[in-house]
């Protein structure tokens, strides 16, 4: 029993000693503040840090505080806590590299000048300008706007035989005088290239047969021709195609998705061109479509062919001595092609 009393007395004496030493330290610190040669009492940063730490390790710290109120020390502690977490949450130079300001402005400029372009199209243009940036970054930096679904794709027979397939279809275009014009388009699946087009107000099987002959002169005819079940493809047309050595692939009834490439292409014609102009006549429509198809084949990047144009477009290197990206208007300024130009 004596042993335990001795141990208890020892620890009690040590506790009282530490208690007195801490209280003495607090009083001496406040006395040192009062001895400073200042016209008014002023606590420096280290005085505040001392009392914040002292309040953490000594429960009875308020009894030793004389110069300021306990609420002041608590306010110091909260301010220190905010500064600590602000420092912990500071921006660190790790992770993905920051996108250059020039590239950010260029993406915004392309999106503004081409309202119907999405991230894949802009990303394709940037790749051709030599910028090393991901499509996801382009999508994140683009101005927010609403996009419309672009439909489905057929990826069975079409994917395996794309080099030997061409597709054709008609689209209807009303004019300003309420006249209805029909546009025939023939598209190659391999590079999404526009092979042939023409405009008429009265399509017939004989006229359509002539267009196929003009689209595939000599021995350039594809192995397969994909089309829908439109009644315009009559006996004359089918015989003409057979004589040219082309095998017709006819889609199922009410299944436009089976001719997805040309249906998507017609949608692009409307979104990229016809929805933004008023057609006055057949010649006017033919001229507009000629300009758009030239842009489509030479300049427009495509998601399905690795962000390249139907007629391959070389990647342009940035000038060594500096330069700027200039916009070349296409289709009357509705679209643009971008290229580097050396600084003057």
Descriptive key words:
43% helix, Nucleotidyltransferase, domain 5, 11 helices, 7 strands, rod-shaped, disordered N terminus, alpha/beta, five-stranded mixed β-sheet, 3 domains
Chain-wise SSE layout:
Layout (H helix, E strand, L loop, with lengths): L1 H33 L10 H13 L12 H19 L12 H13 L5 H10 L6 H7 L15 H4 L4 E10 L5 E9 L5 E7 L4 H11 L8 E4 L7 H9 L3 E4 L9 H13 L9 H17 L24 E8 L4 E8 L2
Helix pairs in contact: 2-3, 5-6, 8-9
What's the name of the CATH homologous superfamily of the largest domain?
Ribonuclease H-like superfamily/Ribonuclease H
- The oligomeric status of these chains comes to single chain
When the domains are counted, the total is 3
Secondary-structure element series: HHHHHHHEEEHEHEHHEE
Uncertain regions spanning at least 5 consecutive residues: 2-12, 149-154
Q: What's the CATH architecture of the largest domain?
A: 2-Layer Sandwich
Largest beta-sheet characterization? 5 strands, mixed
Number of helices: 11
Gyration radius (Cα, Å) is 38 Å
Query: Helix share of residues?
Result: 40-55%
């Amino acid at each position: 029993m004596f042993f335990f009393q001795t141990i208890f007395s020892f620890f009690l004496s040590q506790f009282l000693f530490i208690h007195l030493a801490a209280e003495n330290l607090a009083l001496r610190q406040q006395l040192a503040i009062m001895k400073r040669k200042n016209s008014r009492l002023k606590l420096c940063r280290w005085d505040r840090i001392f009392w914040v730490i002292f309040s953490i390790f000594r429960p009875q710290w308020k009894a030793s505080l004389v110069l300021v109120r306990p609420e002041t020390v608590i306010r110091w502690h909260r301010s220190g806590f905010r500064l600590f977490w602000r420092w912990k949450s500071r921006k660190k130079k790790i992770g993905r590299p920051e996108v250059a300001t020039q590239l950010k402005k260029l993406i915004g400029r392309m999106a503004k000048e081409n309202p119907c372009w999405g991230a894949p199209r802009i990303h394709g243009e940037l790749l051709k300008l030599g910028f090393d940036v991901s499509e996801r970054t382009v999508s994140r930096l683009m101005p927010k706007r609403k996009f419309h679904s672009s439909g489905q794709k057929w990826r069975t027979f079409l994917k395996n035989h794309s080099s030997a397939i061409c597709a054709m279809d008609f689209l209807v275009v009303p004019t300003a005088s309420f006249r209805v014009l029909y546009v025939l388009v023939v598209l190659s699946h391999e590079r999404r290239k526009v092979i042939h087009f023409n405009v008429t107000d009265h399509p017939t099987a004989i006229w359509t047969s002539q267009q196929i002959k003009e689209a595939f002169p000599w021995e350039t005819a594809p192995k397969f021709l994909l089309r829908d079940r439109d009644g315009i493809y009559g006996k004359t047309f089918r015989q003409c195609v057979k004589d040219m050595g082309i095998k017709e692939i006819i889609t199922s009834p009410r299944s436009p998705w089976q001719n997805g490439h040309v249906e998507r292409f017609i949608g692009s014609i409307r979104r990229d061109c016809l929805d933004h102009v008023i057609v006055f006549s057949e010649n006017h429509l033919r001229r507009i479509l000629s300009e758009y198809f030239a842009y489509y084949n030479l300049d427009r990047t495509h998601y399905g062919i690795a962000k390249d144009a139907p007629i391959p477009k070389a990647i342009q290197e940035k000038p060594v001595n500096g330069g700027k990206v200039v916009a070349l208007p296409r289709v009357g300024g509705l679209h643009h092609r971008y290229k580097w130009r050396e600084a003057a």
